[in-house]
Every structure is written in C-alpha cells, then in structure tokens.
Amino acid sequence: MTGYQTAGLALSVCAVIVAAAGAVLPAKAQSWTWSDETAGFADAGGYTGLSFRCGPDGEIAMIFSGFPGGLQDGGGYTVGVSVDGLAFLYEATARDDEAEGASILVSRGSLAGLAELIAALRKGRSAEISGPAGRYTIPLTGSGKALEALQRICGERPTRN
User: Minimal CA–CA distance to 41: which of 99, 89, 81, 95?
Assistant: First the structure.
C-alpha cells in the first residue's frame, strides 16, 4: 500500500466511525419534566409542544407551542388533543411566542376541569395536538411523574378569596 492509499483508508475508516456515532446519538434530549410551577414536554431548548403552568387562584394555563407564526395575536382558536385515540377539545387564545416567527396557543382552566385530560396524559403513550396551523405528535413517556408533580404543586397553592 502506498502512503496515499493508507491515508485514504484511514480517512474512510474515520468517516464510517463518525457516521456511526452520529446515528446513535439523539439530536436533542426530549422528555417530560417539571420545574417550579410548570410541567410539560421539553427538549434542550425548553418546554415545547404541550405544557401546563400553575396560575393564580388555582387557574392552569395549558400552553400549546410549535405552531408556525401567522396566528393573529389575541385570536380565538380550537385545539384538539388526542391521547391514544381519546379526543379533547379546548378553546385557546393565540399569543406571539418569544421565538421569532412562532405562535403559541393558551387555554385556561382549573385543575379539576383538566383532570380527565391530565389522567389520560399520565397513562397514555402519545398525544396528537391539532390546531389551526397543523398538527404534531408528542410522546408521553415520563408524563406521569411530571403531571403528578404539577397536580401536587398547583393543588397546594392557596386561592385568593
């Protein structure tokens, strides 16, 4: 083997090793998590897809993200959440997201009013979110612990009289 052939073979072997390592490593860590007053599906950049936030007086904000921009800020929309084939419909309001060119939809309700959805999410395998700008699916692995924490945290908050 000449020096050029040896160098070419070494580069080919390195390229195969790098390609194999890249195929094994996930692009982003995605999981259900909770912190402070929020629980939801998250990736390395923060909550995405579906999250819940405790609000004042026992109110829960259910936040749908991942929609492209173009939804009218303040506009009312219907969002569907299907958990393993069981469908839930919610009225939501569009808000501009911090990320340029993106919109989020926010639906507000009580912990008791969201109990059936939360129970389905905790036990389910996947959820499909359908809105005016498209649909996407998120896995529910780890949602049980995250949503249990949300119920505990939001349920312990005093309400104002």
Answer: 81
User: Could you tell me the CA-to-CA distances from 2 to 10, 16, 119 in Å, in that order?
Assistant: 12, 21, 67
Q: How far apart are CA 121 and CA 126, in angstroms?
A: 8
- How wide is the angle at C-alpha 97 spanned by C-alphas 109 and 64, nearest 5°? 40
The residue among 29, 52, 28, 54 whose CA lies nearest residue 40 is 52
In sequence order, what are the residues at sequence separation of 6 or more whose Cβ sits closer than 8 angstroms to the Cβ of residue 71?
77, 94, 103, 105, 132, 133
Specify the length of the chain in residues: 161
Give Cα 76 distance to the centre of its chain.
21
Beta strands in 37-125 (DSSP E): 38-43, 46-54, 59-68, 76-83, 86-96, 102-110
Q: What is the tens place of the pLDDT at every residue in 48-99?
A: 899 999 988 779 999 998 777 778 889 999 999 999 999 999 999 998 776 6
For the whole prediction, is pTM greater than 0.85?
Answer: no
Condensed to tens digits (0 to 9), the pLDDT of residues 125-136 reads 999 999 988 899
